[in-house]
Predict the 3D structure of the following.
Amino acid sequence: MPNNQKTRCGTIAIIGRPNVGKSTLLNKILGEKLSITSAKPQTTRQQILGIKTEENTQWIYIDTPGLHQQTQRRLNREMVREAINALVNVDVIGFVIEAGRWNSEDQAILQRLKQQEHPVILIINKVDKIKDKTRLLPFLEECNEKMPFLALIPVSAQKGYNITALEEAIAKQLPSAEFSYPSDQFTNCNQRFLAAEFIREKLMRSLYKELPFWLTVIIEKFEEGEKLIKISAVILTERPGQKAIIIGKKGELLKKVGTQARFDMEQCFGKKVFLNLWVKVKAGWSEEPSL
Ligand code: GDP
Ligand code: MG
């Protein structure tokens, strides 16, 4: 984290009807650094999709339950209402639409966005599909009338056009705050990603029945030596009660998860692994060693 500079950190919800290119956009922004957050699919909690840290800015992209996963089915009003009501702690909403195409589903989302307080950036995706560029300006003007958007940003998620401008526009809306996550949390390092996946998988397997809640695994340290990899991972949860379940009686559950995950890692990485697992409650970031 930079020392003398003020940092910005905040959350962004990317919403939009199915097929406008939300996933493509997030992939473009986050690259391989996609998050490994998991939850049971029916959860209405917000989930982190990915974190990006650059210099003094940390963008935390969150999922919009009910909208993001929806790919095939059309959105109905109820779904839209619930999804947008679920957006409580966001700093900015990115509303993705398709250039030149405004339909009733976009309209339903717009109606809901008008009824809430968070600032909205309109992301007009797939501009590459508009061959006649003179059509774009009138469309932008039309969109601009719909509600007071903070900004209208034409992009092509697929071609990577104007993505940096979009990220900068979002960054401007993020509050001055310390980073919530280590700045190297999502590196391109595949092993790191896998390490978190192994832990998550073992957790899900052990906790399946008790786990209607949100959790995420963060690899805080990944130090590869010649013969040994030292890994520190944090399991983030929301409440002390959930933390207690994850740890288990006398720490047994967490120990079992750790042993199983370590076994998989050693198999996969071909080296000895020293695994340090912690459980933290996200709310207060209370920090207690658990194993
Ligand atoms: P989502 O349902 O909103 O997550 O949409 P997806 O990211 O799955 O994209 C839906 C379709 O639109 C896919 O076939 C993408 O390849 C395509 N797509 C996404 N972004 C662009 C873009 O900028 N230009 C073009 N031409 N196609 C895009
Ligand atoms: Mg998608």
About this structure: The chain is about 30% helix and 25% strand. The beta strands are 8-15, 48-54, 57-62, 92-98, 120-125, 151-154, 215-224, 228-237, 272-281, 286-288.
